[in-house]
Amino acid sequence: MADDLRSRNAQTGLTPDELDALSLTADLAGRLALIVGEGRSRAHDLNELLVHVHAIQHAVMAQAAARIYPERFRLLGEEINHA
């Protein structure tokens, strides 16, 4: 499966599922902003939540790099191909 993804997407970037996942993280960030109150600690509390959203976004976007440079980076759930 990983080889199939690499061949189909080596030059095209993110897969439709990866793009959907990023959209979900953007929606989540917006909803979190609605949940956090308006008090003095809002900015800090929001930052504390959004750092985790950004970590998920980073992991998803790193998939494109793993497809383009499979000898250096690995797809999530896969191993680096040293061949």
TrEMBL record:
Protein name from the UniProt record: Uncharacterized protein
Lineage: Bacteria, Bacillati, Actinomycetota, Actinomycetes, Streptosporangiales
